[in-house]
Write a structure and sequence with these properties.
Three copies of one chain form a homotrimer. Chain A has 107 residues and is an alpha+beta fold. The first copy, chain A, is built from two helices and six strands; from the N terminus they run βαββββαβ. In chain A, α1 runs antiparallel to α2. The radius of gyration of chain A is 15 Å and the shape is globular. About 14% of the residues of chain A have low confidence. β6 of chain A pairs antiparallel with β6 of chain B.
């Protein structure tokens, strides 16, 4: 089957405030992630939701979702960097499995 | 590896018309989902696509994609609620596996 | 559990320049994918990122992310079509596993 000829990669989705999107992009570059997609998002939250340290997202704040696909090794480096970054900033990230064609484009 | 130290969670993506986004947010809150992201979307469709009951999405209608990450137990509650909600409204939802850092933030 | 009563499907996410979004939609239709969601995106890139053939995405270009959910058989047909399309156009696509309620709506 066609989908079984694809190569396994990791997808990393990061949601941060617009002003922190640049720091995430810098992390992507340092981890050697060759491409990413940025999407404008809005967030809401219930009690105690989507926060880090003493900061809390609110529905007014503009958010950006950044999405990158990378090899497991690069994703590992990115996770270390994102954990560090989000110690002092609001934000969340999720990692999931994806399959891609032409894995060489994702380095 | 860094990615293997992450905690498994469920990601729930819901696509509904803008006017139903609030009902989905209410469901998220009732299921105890502490945070979510909302993204503006547009949809197209082929023959018979993306619909529920007698309503059909068209490319003119504004759509919202709502994305939440939750524990499997909360995702289960959300699935029950979403099934009920989408019996009378246009919309689709997908559930997938993700891994997160700091699972306590996702309740 | 509720999530275990869902049906397995494939999610296909495609990121292309706005002007190629229509070609992707046509592919979706030919593969029998009954519905999809389109999201406006922006992309940045590191060295050598997100490209195909001699074209390269830049941060100025408007991008569209198109998201479809389909059976594995339809996803296979879509992967064949997307590979062919992206030989001559900039763009990337990812395939992942999702679970849905009401699989008959996704054909």
């Amino acid at each position: 089957m066609s989908t079984s000829t694809l190569s396994p990669m990791k997808k990393i989705e990061v949601v941060v405030s617009n002003e922190d999107a640049h720091a995430v992009r810098t992390l992507f570059e340092h981890a050697g992630v060759s491409g990413f997609t940025a999407i404008s998002a809005a967030a809401g939250l219930g009690h105690g939701g989507y926060h880090a340290s003493n900061l809390t997202f609110n529905t007014e704040a503009g958010l950006t979702m950044l999405l990158a696909v990378a090899s497991e090794a690069r994703a590992d480096a990115l996770v270390v960097g994102l954990r560090e970054l989000l110690e002092s900033r609001s934000g969340v990230f999720f990692v999931s499995d994806v399959a891609v064609s032409r894995p060489e484009y994702f380095a």
